[in-house]
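Amino Acid Chain and Its Fold in Token Form
===========================================
Scope: a single protein chain, as residues and as a discrete description of its fold.
Amino acid sequence: labelled as such and written in the usual single-letter residue code.
Position: the record begins directly beneath this header, with no further notes in between.
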Amino acid sequence: MKKRILSLLLVLTAVFSLLPLSAQAAGSPAISTNIWGHEYLFDEYGTPIYSQMTATDSGYSRVEYLGEDGITIDEYDENFQFRSHSQLPLELPMYGGVYFGTDYNFLVCGQENPEESNSTEVIRVIRYSKDWQRQDAASLYGANTSYPFHFGSLRMAQSGDMLYIRTCHQMYTSWDGFQHQANVQLNVRISDMKITQCEAGISNSSTGYVSHSFNQFARVDGNDYLAVDHGDAYPRSVILFRYPESAGKEQLSFSPESVEVLPIAGDIGDNYTGVCVGGFEASDTAYLVAGKSIDQGDSTQSSQYNIFVTVTPKDSFTQESTSVRWLTNYSSDDQVPMATPHLVKISGTRFMILWHESGYLRYAFLDQNGTITSDVYTGTAPLSDCDPIVFNNHIIWYVTEESAPVFYSIDLDDPSEVQVDGPVFTDVSPDRFYYEPVLWAYENKIATGVAPHRFAPEKVCTRGQIVTFLWRNAGSPAPQSLDNPFVDVDPNSYCYEAVLWAVEQGITNGISENKFGPDKSCTRGHAVTFLWRAKGSPAPQNPSNPFSDVEEGRFYSDAVLWATENDITQGISAGYFKPDGTCTRGQIVTFLYRSEH
């Protein structure tokens, strides 16, 4: 392989080592980032699929690789409410992928083999029960592999007792001094976890081999096993293989049929192809491959991607019968951002394709021949490396961004809007003290967050925010006068009426005669004082002061004693209240919640 691809190994290692990882308590979903994870690295190479989901008898299961934290398994009910969290260790240091089989689940992992030793285990395929109890494993040694899953992906398909794995590897050093990259075909008999076939040597496309294969797909269609590879060299094409009457057999045909569904312009071995493949499915009449590509007739000039679907008829599996349908048609001057699509099979005659374009989600229905049969709908949901699934007449996927999952779904009977399911705020964990108060504040329209799905509970609360929370909790009453004494409170501000109401109610008078300081941090002393005054300034029942840093006669002293005896707050530690310390948004809504319960 070219020196360029080899030199990027260290770059990729650095990239993945910087991904945020977080060990989670058993009572909360794992935090991760999978948004846009389906995109090629550097617009050139696919990667293993780190996050997946499947429907279960009681809802949904999320399985995601979290690097050093292993593999998380989070269970959700049918309403996307979190139920449980557990983790699996990664038995070898490199993650390959997960597959939800008919009766079992499978996990593939591997390790580097820099010594190019035939006694080194390079790939392990582990069989689990459906409740993730380890049962058995198959091990592959040597196999001309110095680095498994290298600059590509891994996908699996099942037929009867056979598990077919399509992936890639960096091979042993060749005669030219380079460690070239290519695809790998691995077959495992499920019942006893024995490897029955491994194609990992150098060959040519007539045997299913692709040199420099940057993405791999696998499907079983009746009696046929099919695979798609994205090659930059031999061939320089997106190529579709069909192994006729091989599905379910231990040995695949050594001479599969093949069609170069999207030939790629440019020099053999040039890693940049201007193509990203996103999906492969079999319809009742054809094989569909979806992706994005630049104009391959003008690859040196155009950097504008467009969305495509290739269509290869089952009954005419030839280059001449294969067509490319372009779902978008932007020119090189348009420079419209375009994300790699997902292709979802609904039935043998109905599919959905989803992609991102200019910051918006686009999605449409396709028929068995790849023709759009609906409007192209527009939504605001992001995409991730989680392949959308079809369940309960919905297409469903999830996205994380240094957060717990947010689930998105499209109703197949009413697809005009993307529905958002799951946690209201992805940065509010169920095991934190402010979890119930934040949800209470949201449900009662007291606090709506700082951005979609983000509450920022650890962010310092401002004076403008706290009086707004108090005002909304009081029912958002209109102030008796709109005479505004504060030059720093704009009439168009979210807190304008709240500030005027708070002043009228004697909750606060601002920080000076003509300034309120709406963006200034709210201290703990001010927070309990505002809350106490909003409650009518009730006298504390017990005048005993447990805090050494709360002086008698200070404006907040009675408020602190009242808050303490009503279990609104017990200070920051034994004997200390820290009245001049800042108060977070999570703490503020917790104080307010406790004052109402």
The longest helix spans residues 3-17. The helical segments are 3-17, 435-443, 463-473, 496-504, 524-534, 557-565, 585-596. DSSP finds seven helices and 31 strands in the chain.
